UniProtKB/TrEMBL annotation, chains A, B:
<dbReference type="GO" id="GO:0006633">
    <property type="term" value="P:fatty acid biosynthetic process"/>
</dbReference>
<dbReference type="InterPro" id="IPR011032">
    <property type="entry name" value="GroES-like_sf"/>
</dbReference>
<dbReference type="Pfam" id="PF00107">
    <property type="entry name" value="ADH_zinc_N"/>
</dbReference>
<keyword id="KW-0496">Mitochondrion</keyword>
<keyword id="KW-0276">Fatty acid metabolism</keyword>
<dbReference type="InterPro" id="IPR036291">
    <property type="entry name" value="NAD(P)-bd_dom_sf"/>
</dbReference>
<comment type="similarity">
    <text>Belongs to the zinc-containing alcohol dehydrogenase family. Quinone oxidoreductase subfamily.</text>
</comment>
<keyword id="KW-0444">Lipid biosynthesis</keyword>
<feature type="domain" description="Enoyl reductase (ER)">
    <location>
        <begin position="28"/>
        <end position="367"/>
    </location>
</feature>
<keyword id="KW-0443">Lipid metabolism</keyword>
<dbReference type="GO" id="GO:0141148">
    <property type="term" value="F:enoyl-[acyl-carrier-protein] reductase (NADPH) activity"/>
</dbReference>
<keyword id="KW-0809">Transit peptide</keyword>
<dbReference type="Pfam" id="PF08240">
    <property type="entry name" value="ADH_N"/>
</dbReference>
<protein>
    <recommendedName>
        <fullName>enoyl-[acyl-carrier-protein] reductase</fullName>
        <ecNumber>1.3.1.104</ecNumber>
    </recommendedName>
</protein>
<dbReference type="InterPro" id="IPR013149">
    <property type="entry name" value="ADH-like_C"/>
</dbReference>
<dbReference type="InterPro" id="IPR020843">
    <property type="entry name" value="ER"/>
</dbReference>
<keyword id="KW-0560">Oxidoreductase</keyword>
Amino acid sequence: MAFHSTRRLLSQCTNRAIVYSQNGDPAKVLTAVSFRPLPPPAPNTVNVKFLLAPINPADLNVIEGVYPAKPSPTPGLTAEPVFVGGNEGLARVTSIGDGVSGLSRDDWVVMTKAQIGTWCTGKNVGVHDIVKVPRVDGLTEVHAATMTVNPPTAYNMLKDFVPLQEGDWVIQNGANSAVGQAVIQIAASRGLKTLNFVRPRENLSELIKQLEDLGATKVLTYDALTDKSLRNDVKEWTGGKNISLALNCVGGKETTLMTRLLGNNAHLVSYGAMSKQPLSLPTSLFIFKNLTAHGFWQSQWYLTRPREEQEQVMNTLVNLMGQGKLKPPKHEIVSISAEDSDEEAGQKVRDVITKISEGQQGKKNLLRLESSES
Amino acid sequence: MAFHSTRRLLSQCTNRAIVYSQNGDPAKVLTAVSFRPLPPPAPNTVNVKFLLAPINPADLNVIEGVYPAKPSPTPGLTAEPVFVGGNEGLARVTSIGDGVSGLSRDDWVVMTKAQIGTWCTGKNVGVHDIVKVPRVDGLTEVHAATMTVNPPTAYNMLKDFVPLQEGDWVIQNGANSAVGQAVIQIAASRGLKTLNFVRPRENLSELIKQLEDLGATKVLTYDALTDKSLRNDVKEWTGGKNISLALNCVGGKETTLMTRLLGNNAHLVSYGAMSKQPLSLPTSLFIFKNLTAHGFWQSQWYLTRPREEQEQVMNTLVNLMGQGKLKPPKHEIVSISAEDSDEEAGQKVRDVITKISEGQQGKKNLLRLESSES
């Protein structure tokens, strides 16, 4: 490490954010900036300190400018307006404005407003843009920092489209994705059976074991979808019971084949398109089997559902997490010390993103931006 | 015409049906058979005489064995069990079994049970498989004979998926189909605007004129869908109002492009696949624009909706027809005289079907099977 002349003046700049001023390759456009302590919170707002904030794939798409949700620029950090990266994260309440009820200093909160900019140490947020996370036994920081996107996506997709009873089956592809793993666990906690499809790979038996340990009933590769015997196998596993819900984050041919395993009056819910192929379905499935195809976007859910429902879902997820029924994702924490210079901090973030972009890391990276402000 | 030695013995065989004993090319497998007068109707049934029964494209698919709805064989017509063709038709009540209320001799009825076999002169039917057609002024036999499939398909698709207000827009392709024309008229009767797509063709301006006369707001060809200026044109026509319902009987690329004209939270309802191409849609439309894709099948509607609703829809359609707001399709009536031999009758039907299969006739053929039974 070279000697750094830009060591921060801690007394003046206790906060830091990872920002960009224009869209582009996140491994290039992101920089770290330091900024002064937050002023006391205005009425109906609180100041928070972020403890841990994941780098999600969608965050990179937002920075690239190819994601439909656009953040608003944050004023006051630098001379020109900049965007703070990050959509999800766990924060701790540090001070409370007038008129705020139900929140105390040191409470944990997560963001319900999309694209709020979580890759920073401290922030002022409106009370309607956050929800309190009960500190139940067994709930870790990693759990809480990753609980507002993937787990509720899984939970809501299993709840909002088809009334499922214990013993009912659900099919999904991309079963190894963060949402896929949450689907397996939440389904298992409800006594639902899951038929899971994953990409063929070298260490398949290891992955199957891992997903079965989470509660997967069956795990198959996309290759099995072209196997003529599959339909009979499925019939045997389900005891001939119709499958009425399929969850899709892949698209393309695999999804067409998976959808054929559904019974009459079923629902196909898409929340991703990892194959980058469109959803292509025979019209006859819609007309003669009464298939309905939906999309699900958790950001939209937060915009349209009442606060009580949001809190209820968060509490349910927190309890599952506390009981060990919903495990945190495999992860790696990227710590940025309060004493790192902005240059060092920026470089660390860009390096992690380069590593993420290079491929199948199989774990979630979480930023821990340390600050000297408490 | 050759001399026919098989002239029917009217005193014995007053009824006739167009039948097939196995699936195949309808222009080959269909024959006419004569059968004896119907016995008096059993309790809760009535005997009816068919006045007019259309030859719909789906009827040919049923005979080919490629349609998901399968008829039951009709016993007693011939030594081996045979299937009577036809799904739709207008009949007149000729005699009434015990326990039947709300029906009188000479009442008009149409079939609500699919694949009942309408290509015959007389039939015994259960009261729950028919619905009475009020004889309002202006309602013709052709109206009533074609009212159970296409008009309710149009009516229900405009009613069941999106709550539409006067001035709202609906998009559809295959706008020249029988359902498409009904959509245009029913939409116009509700003050809805329609953006209609049709295949490019030579006599386009004539077709546009014809659809506009029915009440179409805009008529364009599929070629316009690839025109970049279309989106702005549509915005201008709608005054920027979101379009939230698209009706599709085509599939393939045209439907993908049409769906892109929809706003957020829209519904795409498919009732046909004339292009024989699957429905291929970018997953992003489902996730980020909250598109929902459904199918609609009128046969299924009859199976799942209460009788009151069925009667209500039929009455609404009858009133629209009577008021001249829902015109009968362009048609040609194929009359088969009671004095034709079965051979002649069968040949007439096969000839018509050959003509239909050869292509774009642009009109509906309706069978009028005459019998000497009154």
